[in-house]
Amino acid sequence: MSIFITFEGGEGSGKSTQARALHRRLLSMGIPSLLTHEPGGTPVGKGVRSWLKFKGKIVPSSELLFFTASRAQLVAEVIRPTLKSGTVIICDRFAESTIAYQGYGRGLALDLIEAANNIATGGLRPDLIVLLDLPVEQGLSRKRLKDRFEREEITFHQRVRQGYLEMTRKEPQRWLVVDGSLPKKEIEHLIWERVEQLLPKVRKNEKRG
Ligand code: TMP
């Protein structure tokens, strides 16, 4: 059995940097690790990414279906095939991004999002979700070239942030909330402390295999 870890956060939260740092650390210790991201990670996902981030007007329900289509493809092509191999799978954004952005941000009904997410994931949930949390103004100020989401009004980003925080309160055991304004190395350390606790699962598996 593998460990499935996802990174979540608002714009400019530093989650991609931290996902890469964790991936490098695991590999340097000889622990198999796969790093992927959403939207993306497959040819379908790459198309969805460029379309959704940079092209014109898309209604919220269409946005939801594009993101979940990309997710369905990533789960089928990349994540599920890796799950049995004792690898740590790290995904930069996953189903909780859709709840935060299309649910809390765009205002689509949360039960619709849940249904679409379930179709895409077949019920697959992360073992750990790392949330890099920081005030939206701070995150947005780290971005230079702004895409369609980053150009949304500040209240949209505030709803996304509140959405994430609400999810962490509902299921605190599944989340690690880290202050995204801390120095990078400190964040890396806090994430590592938590990930280390999950690792014996992989190590035991390696011995068996
Ligand atoms: P990023 O991965 O570079 O942050 O870009 C992805 C953008 O897409 C980001 O603004 C968040 C947004 N997004 C959604 O709105 N819903 C989703 O389900 C996902 C995965 C991303």
Topology:
Blueprint lengths: L2 E7 L5 H14 L4 E5 L5 H12 L5 H24 L4 E5 L2 H11 L4 H12 L6 E6 L2 H5 L13 H17 L4 E5 L4 H15 L1 H9 L1
Helix pairs in contact: 2-3, 3-5, 4-5, 4-7
The protein binds thymidine-5'-phosphate.
Description:
By secondary structure, the protein is an alpha/beta fold. It has one domain: P-loop containing nucleotide triphosphate hydrolases (Rossmann fold), CATH 3.40.50.300. Helices cover 57% and strands 13% of the residues. The protein is built from nine helices and five strands. It has helices at residues 15-28, 43-54, 60-83, 95-105, 110-121, 136-140, 154-170, 184-198, 200-208; strands at 3-9, 33-37, 88-92, 128-133, 175-179. It has a five-stranded parallel β-sheet, sandwiched between helices. It is globular and about 45 Å long. Bound molecules: thymidine-5'-phosphate. Residues 11, 38-39, 53, 67, 93, 97-98, 101-102, 149 line the site of thymidine-5'-phosphate.
